Amino acid sequence: MMSEQPQNAQPAGGDVPPGYTPPPPPPGYTPPNAAPPPNYGTPPPPGYQPPPGYGYPLQPGMPGPMYLEPPNSAMAIVSLVAGIAGFVGFLFIGPLVAVIFGHLAMNEINNSQGRVGGKGMATAGLILGYVGLGLTVLGLIFFFVFIGVIGTAIQNIPTPTPTTSPF
After folding, report:
1. Would you tell me how many other CB atoms lie within 10 Å of the CB of residue 18?
2. Integer distance in angstroms from the first to the last C-alpha of the chain?
3. Residue 70 and residue 115 in contact, taking contact as beta carbons nearer than 8 Å
């Protein structure tokens, strides 16, 4: 089998056939031995410093500036934990603490101008707190109604009267 070479390909020995012209370089390509491109504009004066606050210029391929999230409000964390604790075992205290600290956390977050985070945790704590308080109130109503029904039923049980025996 014979391998065919393209018409413009150079032979392996490096000899260039007569009449061969290499293809032009792609647009924007600078040959390796070419002079650097000219600087446009006026150069900065000696001792020039960039204005403060600009940092290092980004180069192609470098990651952009990183944006850090603000720290979470401690009151938002307490609100969320207390709201969860209200469902685990602290039936009245947990939801009450969750509601109080949830409102304090929301106030702190809204007044911080973005310096304090945790709005989602505060909202979740408020929701858990209000649901927990509602369930606690319903549980107390059910408990007292149950006690009342049982008390009424016990009062209505006929008591046996002692009978006198003829003996």
Report:
1. 5
2. 135
3. yes
The residue to which tokens 């150079």 are assigned: 10
Count of helices and strands (H, E) across the chain: 3, 0
Average of pLDDT values for 110-116?
93
Q: How far is it, in rounded angstroms, from Cα 33 to Cα 35?
A: 7
Nearest to 78 by CA among 37, 44, 129: 129
Give yes or no for a contact between 130 and 99, defined as CB atoms under 8 angstroms apart. yes
Q: Residues, the chain, total?
A: 167
d(CA 87, CA 135): 9
Among 124, 60, 71, 130, residue whose Cα is nearest residue 96: 130
pTM exceeds 0.70, yes or no: no
Q: 3-class SS at 107?
A: helix
> Which residue type is seen at 74?
A
Tokens for 88, please give them: 């685990």
pLDDT in tens, 26-59: 887 766 776 666 666 777 677 766 666 656 666 6
- Classified as helix, coil or strand, 105 is helix
- Spatial distance between the Cα atoms of 107 and 73, rounded to a whole number of angstroms: 11
Question: What are the tokens at 24?
Answer: 């032009």
Pull the structure tokens for residue 163.
Answer: 């009978």
